[in-house]
Amino acid sequence: MSGFGAIVGRELRLATRRGGEAALTLGFFVIAIALFPFGVGPEPALLGRIAAGVVWVTALLAATVSFDRLFRADLEDGTLELYALLPLPLELVVLAKALAHWLLTGLAVTVLAPLMAAMLYLPEAATLPLVAGLLIGTPALSLLGAVGAALVLGARRGGALIGLLVLPLFIPVLVFGISAVEAALGGLPVLPHLLILGALLLVALPVGAFGAAAGLRLALE
Asked: Considering the entire predicted model, what is its pTM?
């Protein structure tokens, strides 16, 4: 586990030194949501009705923007080969990278979500289910995105290919994340939707770890 923590710490330090990558993701999230009132109109009732979907879809797209950089730099500078030589299984390396990605993108988006939802006039009763859903669902996005990033590693125009690969996998997370908010707005139980999101996260853990590790091994051959 010390090796796992070291990889997470390294990724966070590198992101702090570069700075711009995490800021780019968050900037995309904020600006994209801020544009919606200009596109659909400033009516509070309409914005409140679509707020959950806007926040979720924008969070999904913001995460997708950053997947291309998840393993690319490691392949280019030889770090990926060193990871493969470590006694630490490559699956745990993938989980460490996915955790760092979530801390830099998914967690930051979740923290910003209440502010952006308030800007879109989302009722206060739905804010907590929105944040809870993002807190559970965004790690699944990072794990599934790692699979796409590993599979297209070294390919030309990998960023576009990642979107084509992972966006269909994100649909269940998106559906139940929005459903939790809709249930809160309708006075229905929210917990079943959050439990399903938790189940999707548990499925994404092995899928992300083993799928991405297999893709990295192919890239190293």
From this structure: 0.89
